[in-house]
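> forwarded from #structure-qc
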């Protein structure tokens, strides 16, 4: 608002939004790319090179847990993305409201 009065701290909220987007991207990369690469290496280590059979420890244990993790991780990324979107919308709405109020007072 024109006198610097607001019920939110726009610079802090802007910074929070930027950091949320940044860490969301980093987390997504680590979870998808890095974890997938490590999983492929583990699978290769548990594969018999003579007949390409994969050890039961991978298929009956690790792979089941990894698939569950992948689903929950995707859900977590979706929640974080939704939070970032809600924050972005709230900032835009607050700015619009501030401008409308300022216009109403002839500022």
């Amino acid at each position: 608002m024109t006198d610097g009065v607001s019920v939110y701290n726009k610079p802090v909220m802007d910074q929070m939004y930027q950091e949320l987007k940044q860490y969301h991207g980093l987390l997504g990369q680590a979870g998808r790319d890095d974890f997938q690469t490590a999983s492929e290496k583990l699978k290769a280590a548990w594969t018999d090179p003579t007949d390409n059979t994969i050890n039961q420890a991978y298929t009956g244990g690790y792979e089941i847990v990894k698939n569950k993790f992948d689903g929950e991780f995707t859900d977590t990324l979706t929640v974080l993305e939704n939070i970032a979107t809600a924050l972005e919308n709230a900032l835009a709405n607050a700015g619009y409201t501030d401008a409308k109020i300022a216009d109403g007072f002839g500022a």
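QC bot note: Residues 10-90 form one domain. The CA atoms of residues 84 and 96 lie 18 Å apart.
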